[in-house]
Amino acid sequence: MGEDRRGLLRRALTVAAGISAGAALTRIPDLVTSDRLPLGGGYAPAGVASGWSPRGGLNVRWHVPTEQPFVALTFDDGPGPQWTPMVLDVLDRHRAPATFFVVGERLTRHEDLMRHRIGRHELGNHTWAHRDLGKLDEAGVRDQLLRTHVAIRRVAGYPPTLMRPPWGHLGGSTLVIADEFEYDVVMWSHQMREKRYAHNPPAQARDIVDNVQPGSIVLAHDIGARHRLVALNQLDAILNGLHRRGLRPVTVSTLIAAAAAGRASIKDFRADQGQMAAEK
């Protein structure tokens, strides 16, 4: 009888431990930092589109294969009154275009920072409130992108064609809605590593200048924690270094268009060569 009681106690403790472990696992996604994928996953189904897309898919770009000496500088999370004007001033001095992936709520509050200074630059969609799109369903993603789409069109005078998900987190819902808006999704091939170079800011500039190549897409931020100033304070050096290497800053859209034109030229050349060979 005593042995039975001990067996029952052991089984009860095992069940309790299992329940505690399960509860802890359900809390793991909340404990994971925002620069990591959620371990518990999001809704993010692969195909629940509410309509039939003409494209049926979209491009997701980390870099753009091209022989043109072009590099795209991109700035996320703004605009903000502290650093965005500084970034624009540096870009203006170098006559360098860039792509700003803006947060719609911030653009609405600070639209005067951008309205008269967009000029050679372009604006892309970075959601309304910097939400993790990998955790949202189709309706949630559409709301985040639609509100920012409308804000960009109002401020810039044209609808955006590019979007970047916060933290680079993608799910099926994001891809479905990005296709609905006829966006290209833009990631990055090089990133400013401000914490790594906090005590040696010139090394941040060298890291970008020495390692980018034609078609690179570089990620920076024009709002956020103060350590991001390590990169922003090196923009002059970065732009000078790119110039010395013969690399030209362009918008992401220009980079994509140049690559497409290059592919078309190669295709036409090969067709002409084939025709000439046939005529011989």
- The outline comes out as globular
Structural class: alpha/beta
Let me know the largest β-sheet: 6 strands, parallel
* Radius of gyration over C-alpha positions, nearest whole angstrom: 24 Å
Spans of at least 5 consecutive residues with low confidence: 23-29, 31-35, 265-273
Question: What do you see in this structure?
Answer:
- The strands form 2 sheets. Strands 2, 3, 4, 7, 8 and 9 form a 6-stranded parallel β-sheet that branches.
- The chain is built from 10 helices and 9 strands.
- It is globular.
- The chain has helices at 2-31, 84-94, 104-109, 111-115, 138-156, 172-180, 201-211, 229-232, 235-244, 252-279; strands at residues 60-61, 70-76, 99-102, 122-125, 162-163, 184-186, 190-191, 217-221, 248-250.
Which features characterize this protein?
alpha/beta; 3-stranded parallel β-sheet
List the helices and strands and how they pair.
Blueprint: H1 2-31, E1 60-61, E2 70-76, H2 84-94, E3 99-102, H3 104-109, H4 111-115, E4 122-125, H5 138-156, E5 162-163, H6 172-180, E6 184-186, E7 190-191, H7 201-211, E8 217-221, H8 229-232, H9 235-244, E9 248-250, H10 252-279
Parallel strand pairs: 1-6, 2-3, 2-8, 2-9, 3-4, 5-6, 7-8
Helix pairs in contact: 2-9, 5-6, 7-9
